[in-house]
Amino acid sequence: MPVSIRDALHSPQDRAWISKTYAEYLEELSSLSMNTGIFPVAGEFGEREPELLARWFADDSSHPLIILKNDKPAGFALVSRPPRHRRESIDFRMAEFFVTRAQRRLGVGRDAAMLIFNRFGGTCEIDEFQYNKPAITFWRSVVSEYTRGRFQESVLHGEVRQVFASRQK
């Protein structure tokens, strides 16, 4: 069950797969928001939804990735540079990360995260919505394993944040 990641920036097939799967991602996030309105429901942006994804592929500070299991799409990630005012302390941030339900609890997300951390060396940041308990548990476990417990965690403005140094290989 080898897991790999692939740059999706120049692949129309990967872009189409992310676009198709993005609705499932939004649906899951909106159900976790507990009706706070923080995350949109699928279709809420209507015709503008493709514009949201287009930014992933147009922004030179964004790195859209496909997560693969046995060479088949199993999820996606978006690694980005932080806003300019935070670039002195953070090199990269996990802006989006999603593994399809069928591929969860098989180590796909963990293995993909490790590959992503190794690819993007420097100080990394991951934020989770405070009501997304599965994501908080997942990222605490993965980051702790990756860093051998050497990371900082904070809670601010409804988000749990881990900051750590990745070791680029």
Taking the sheet with the most strands, its summary is: 7 strands, mixed
How much helicity do the residues have?
A: 25-40%
Arithmetic mean of pLDDT: 85
Strand residues, percent? 25-35%
SSE arrangement, N to C: EHHEEEHEHEE
Number of helices: 4
| Widest sheet: strand ordering | 1-2-3-4-5-7-6
| Rg result | 15 Å
Distance between the termini: 22 Å
SS class: alpha+beta
> Spans with pLDDT under 50 lasting ≥5 residues?
34-42
State the total count of DSSP E strands.
Answer: 7
Shape: globular
Describe this structure in words.
With 169 residues, the chain is of the alpha+beta class. It is 34% helix and 30% strand. It has helices at 12-32, 49-58, 108-119, 133-147, and strands at 3-7, 62-69, 72-80, 92-99, 122-129, 152-156, 159-166.
Give a quick summary of the entry.
Helix content is 34%, strand content 30%. It is an alpha+beta fold. A seven-stranded mixed beta sheet has the order 1-2-3-4-5-7-6, sandwiched between helices.
Write the layout of secondary structure elements.
Layout: E1 3-7, H1 12-32, H2 49-58, E2 62-69, E3 72-80, E4 92-99, H3 108-119, E5 122-129, H4 133-147, E6 152-156, E7 159-166
Parallel strand pairs: 4-5
Antiparallel strand pairs: 1-2, 2-3, 3-4, 5-7, 6-7
Keywords:
169 residues; alpha+beta; seven-stranded mixed β-sheet; 7 strands
